[in-house]
Write a structure and sequence with these properties.
The complex is a heterodimer of chains A (305) and B (297).
Chain A (H helix, E strand, L loop, with lengths): L6 H10 L13 H24 L3 H7 L10 H9 L2 H32 L5 H13 L6 H10 L16 H25 L4 H8 L4 H12 L1 H17 L2 H6 L8 H11 L4 H21 L1 H13 L2
Chain B lengths: L14 H32 L19 H9 L3 H31 L5 H9 L6 H7 L1 H4 L5 H6 L12 H26 L3 H9 L4 H12 L1 H17 L2 H7 L8 H10 L5 H26 L4
Classes of the chains: A mainly alpha (305), B mainly alpha (297).
GO biological process, one term (chain B): transmembrane transport
Subcellular location (chain B): Cell membrane
Family (chain B): Belongs to the binding-protein-dependent transport system permease family.
Chain lengths: 305, 297
């Protein structure tokens, strides 16, 4: 099968060609050079962290940071134990996974109803969720904080006895804030599914829940994957609610534990570098492995697919 | 009859279906109502009271606009914080956002290595702003920072109230530009290529084409980018909290609200008034955003 014989492919080939700075442009080197410089400037702070994280404090203290040498792995060992990263990563996991799953499930429910049925209150409902996503969280802090402190929960549910200082409370807040964005993205996605699918399902006597679980959700897999990646990053990176609702340092997820690290690592920049790299690793893995999904998730919301 | 139901269109619902659909809407709605909208209303109501957060709710006395008057007159960090939020907005709006748009346009030209350029610029977007503040300490720290090592200076870039806001803004812009680039790039990919070709045939230069043809058709994404910039400037919090809990030159409204609630002195009414000011500003932005995002519906 010859690829070029296909007219569609040929058209795509043409579109993929660089639009400007092509062979006839006199300054065809200018753009790549400019972009390379920009990219290097943008990568620089991270590269600096990466390089210094492997360098010995005594060496850089003696020779200054503008030097080369003194490579060691000790910073990572020290940062890991001093920052108690094992505990904080575990906390992050316990918060992020349920929050992402719950957010996706609840937003899929709302999106399904909005997309599947043509009711008049649909737009208002979607607006109600999406607006919630955009409010500044600090503005809602006082009532949430006081409510959580006042709400008693059994000790088997949360060892603090209240929703304050509990993972469950934090997970609920994250879910409430993120549902709007996901519901919006998913409802746009679901609206594009052909109505005939539901028609035949209804004729076959499929209940609404069967339609949801066996038709809609499987077809939304790409959107759900993109949102899962995006939400994992966001909730892992979430700093404010975790900091104020979990007040005890040993309950902090990784991102909030930066609060304490800055004090502890204050005197040693190489520890700061190693700590930064450790904290960044999960999101960097997402960046390198699941980049496509991350970008898709972020741009789905802004551009309607 | 194979099925008990007769087909009456896809919106027909059995009794059980009605319960399921109701639950699918009601459960998420209640959660958001409880943790977002109820607190929003609560914040506004509390802002007109003198509650100190210690006494019972029955001891609350309405004080009218007293909290707002106090904020404007006898609360020293308020005006600096307002000013800092505005500077934050100005820097993101006039520097970081245009930079992100420029990057998007450059990357969109599709020269060899585009993926590398694109990834490098948006790499900071996957990091939290708290971590960004932490990483930039390597550059800004007084004794061990790269900046002082190169210049031979002794400025404490995070500590000196004359410069720390600007130092933080460089770090925040580093992340913001990547974020905007990503959003804008998605918009640019959606522009009909024939528009560009038509402009080219008409002899328009690259610059003219961008400003006269591309920018106008990108109106929805332009507004989204602007609203995102405003919201980010209003929400800015993590990075200053990590550095010094929003004091000493880094006061921001969001940090003041937090200090008044979780700090030593919990002044609920007072903090609520600050939060209400945030809510008021954000509600304008939210309305603009909703109108754009939901236009098609």
């Amino acid at each position: 099968m010859s690829v070029t014989s296909n007219p569609v492919d040929e058209r795509q080939q043409r579109l993929l060609k660089p639009r400007e700075g092509g062979a006839r442009s006199g300054r065809r080197w200018a753009l790549p050079v400019a972009l390379t410089i920009i990219s290097l400037i943008w990568l620089f702070p991270l590269l600096l962290a990466l390089v210094n994280s492997f360098r010995d404090y005594a060496y850089t203290a003696k020779n200054g940071y503008i030097s080369w040498g003194g490579f060691t792995l000790d910073n990572y060992r020290n940062a890991w134990s001093q920052g108690d990263f094992g505990l904080h990563f575990w906390n992050s996991l316990l918060i992020t996974v349920p929050a992402v799953v719950l957010t996706l499930f609840l937003s899929a429910c709302v999106a399904f109803v909005v997309a599947r049925f043509s009711w008049t209150f649909n737009i208002a409902l979607l607006g109600f969720f999406l607006a919630a996503n955009l409010l500044p969280p600090q503005a809602l802090l006082i009532p949430v904080y006081r409510m959580f402190r006042a709400i008693q929960v059994p000790f088997w549910f949360s060892e603090s006895g209240t929703l304050l200082n509990s993972f469950q409370g934090l997970i609920l807040v994250n879910v409430a804030f993120q549902t709007g964005f996901c519901a919006f993205v998913l409802s746009n996605y679901m609206k594009a599914l052909p109505k005939e699918l539901y028609e035949s399902a209804v004729i076959d006597g499929a209940s609404v829940s069967r339609q949801f679980f066996q038709i809609t959700l499987p077809l939304c897999r790409p959107a759900l994957a993109a949102l899962a990646v995006l939400q994992t990053t966001w909730i892992y990176n979430e700093f404010f609610w975790a900091t104020v609702l979990l007040q005890q340092g040993d309950k902090y997820p990784v991102t909030s534990s930066i609060n304490n690290l800055r004090g502890q690592f204050f005197t040693d920049n190489n520890l700061v570098a190693a700590g930064s790299v450790i904290i960044a690793v999960p999101t960097l893995v997402i960046f390198f492995v699941l980049q496509r999904h991350f970008v898709a998730g972020l741009t789905l919301g802004a551009t309607k697919g | 009859m194979a099925s008990k139901r007769r087909y009456k269109g896809i919106d027909q619902l059995s009794k059980r279906d009605k319960v399921v659909v109701s639950l699918m809407v009601i459960v998420p709605t209640l959660l958001v109502l409880w943790l977002v909208w109820f607190p929003a209303v609560g914040t506004v109501l509390l802002s007109f009271t003198n509650w100190d957060g210690i006494g019972p709710l029955s001891g609350i006395k309405p004080v009218g606009l007293q909290n707002y008057i106090d904020i404007a007159t006898i609360y020293p960090p308020f005006w600096p914080a307002m000013q800092h939020n505005l500077i934050w907005l100005a820097v993101l709006f006039f520097i970081a956002t245009p930079l992100g748009v420029l990057f998007a346009v450059l990357v969109d030209r599709g020269v060899a290595g585009t993926r590398f350029y694109q990834s490098s610029i948006y790499l900071p977007v996957v990091l939290s702003l708290a971590l960004v503040g932490f990483i930039w300490q390597l550059i800004y720290s007084r004794d061990q920072g790269l900046l002082n090592a190169i210049t031979g200076g002794t400025t404490d870039w995070y500590g000196d109230p004359d410069v720390n806001l600007w130092a933080v803004l460089v770090a925040a812009s580093w992340r913001h530009a990547g974020y905007i680039m990503l959003l804008y790039l998605a918009g640019l990919k959606g522009v009909d290529p024939s528009l560009r070709e038509a402009a080219k045939i008409d002899g328009a230069s690259e610059t003219t084409t961008f400003f006269r043809v591309i920018l106008p058709v990108m109106r929805p994404i332009n507004i989204i980018v602007i609203v995102v910039t405003f919201i980010e400037s209003l929400r800015a919090f993590d990075i200053v909290w990590v550095i010094n809990k929003g004091r000493n030159g880094l006061e921001l409204i969001s940090a003041l609200v937090t200090q008044n609630v979780v700090g030593e002195a919990s002044r609920i009414g007072f903090g609520s008034a600050l939060a209400t000011i945030m809510l008021l500003i954000s509600s304008v932005l939210v309305i603009i955003y909703l109108r754009i995002a939901m236009k098609e519906d």
